[in-house]
Records
---
Amino acid sequence: MNANTGIIFRIKQYAIHDGPGIRTTVFFKGCPLDCWWCHNPEGIRMTPETCQPAAGSGRKPEILGTRMTVEAVLAAVEKDVIFYDQSGGGVTFSGGEPLMQAEFLFALLDACRQQDIHATVDTSGYAPADIFKRALAKADRVLFDLKLVDDAAHKKFTGVSNDLILSNFRAAQASDKVQVRFPVIPGITDNPENIERLAKLAAVSGKIKRFDLLPYHRTAAAKYQRLGLVDRMNGMAAPTTEQMDMLQDRIARYGFTVRVGG
Ligand code: SF4
């Protein structure tokens, strides 16, 4: 991996949940976490992989993960500049974990700045402190995904300690670019203690204004099958609208604007 090329597994146009306005979301392949509920399991491994077609679709297997240059990604992003201008949108670099391909990400962020394209980074926060700080400085907005405050639970359900994540989050609190995203995973992240501790943590500086709730959904289950991966959520139901409403109220009490779905 270098500054000019990286591995991308999808580029999605007209995204409306990954930052302000209408956006193009660029999904980086590779993530150091392995969350049980991951909605993009095709983004976890860094290498290209084969995804079998849906049963009965008659389609051929698909290879997910393509090496792309900065110029090629930028050309795809620039196709929709007119929509960004009209809606206050831009590009979002997501994944997987974009900070895993840091030099490539930085080159893309620099290119976006030159072209005056609003750039958002969606991250788990799991990256060396210097890399995280550079991303924060170069991006226009950072969507910081917070999951579990308890370290033992974090290790169990994501495969890594949250030390680095929380330390980067504390450092990011001085910035007004940060927005929190919280995956609502029944029986794992949605217990009141975790929610209260996360909300308190995010409220410390008073600079973080948005707290988005991302409800678990079952749509990724088929992807696990097609990639030959074990789905550890094992038929878990999505949270109900009532549960999401209650959660929204609870977090709004800390002074955040809370949206469901980002
Ligand atoms: S951090 Fe995000 S992309 Fe990585 S495994 Fe967890 S949910 Fe999936």
---
Amino acid sequence: MKSLKENFQKAHIVVIGSGIIGKFNALELSELGFQVTIIDPTELQNSSYAALGLLMGNMYQKRKGRSWDLRKQSIELWPQWITFLQKFNSELNIEKPLIQLTTNEEKFKKLEKFIYENNDQNLRILEGESIFIKNINKAFQTKNIKGMISIKDGRINPFYLLQTLDKYLKHKKVNFSKGEIIKIRKSNNQWISTTRNNENIKSDMVILCNSLKAIDLIDSISHNITLKPVLGQAMEIDVNDAEVDLLSLPKQFNINGKNIIPKSKNKLIIGSTDEYSTKPEENTFEKLTNFLDKKPNWLMKGKISKKWYGIRSRPDGEPSPIMKNLEDGLIICTGFYKNGILLAPACSKWVANEIKNYFS
Ligand SMILES: Cc1cc2nc3c(=O)[nH]c(=O)nc-3n(C[C@H](O)[C@H](O)[C@H](O)COP(=O)(O)OP(=O)(O)OC[C@H]3O[C@@H](n4cnc5c(N)ncnc54)[C@H](O)[C@@H]3O)c2cc1C
């Protein structure tokens, strides 16, 4: 009889959840030759479709420990994956750089110290004489904005990314099933995932990538895993003011914690909020535009043309994300909170290594 190791290429892996994490795991595993099935009932409503797609990796100020290691790996892996995925969508790219700004002198001093201590050529301080700062001060009618620029960080458009992954997965004949998994169990060395319609899907392994709902499928108490919902709202604003040209601004930047992405001369995206709830609060415009002492007129008069939200899962009592081998053939990869797009490559690599070890 052949062992699982000999049959490694024939092993079937079920990925529950098809947000960025489920899709990225499926990509990595199908490249290794596994048979993969992704199961998700409502993939267009997940938090991945709500994301802004910023990759805040190199600008992360804690330069040691697990969070930094994952970020560092992802920053290195993303350009390679983008080159690979461009075969399926030539428009997919990482828009660089990323700029982080503040009006708070203490926070700026911290940024200066961080850059000075790390001596990283990809990070630089931005002050008044920089063209970026001049344009931002002019547009936002401010004088005291400063910050840093990170050459290696940037943004991937999450919508293009998810669509490109779909194209790739279709090309690789990865199965998609529209079910909602309500139970998983092990029987005779196989995993059985049961959908709400009572369909049983058998596999050699299961990877839980279904965010908050992952804990409904496991004994979360004995595994000691708690996830909390953190809702994030974002909006697109139309600005009808000839005084400001939003295209004079950098492609993506952050002022006092709010991310800003100019889309055209008179349209920009701002995100996101941090709401410890599953229902969006109502004062979206105020919550997202109060990042300066005084708003410029054009922003005050801006009109929301689109708004959306996503519910992120945040681990309680341990750092984000949760990546654990729960038992033979069962892995959890979830709880990404704010950084699922950034961390997808590093975390999928970790999962793939665990799986390779399992079958060897
Ligand atoms: C407004 C906003 C802005 C953001 N901006 C950024 C950013 O700039 N950069 C960044 O890196 N991250 C950002 N994020 C965070 C990022 O979106 C998340 O970290 C990431 O999407 C998490 O991906 P996921 O695949 O774990 O979860 P999700 O995308 O939520 O996917 C989980 C999937 O599991 C499915 N599912 C649930 N239960 C079941 C079940 N029982 N059976 C089958 N399927 C199931 C759901 O339908 C869903 O499709 C942002 C988030 C929000 C809300």
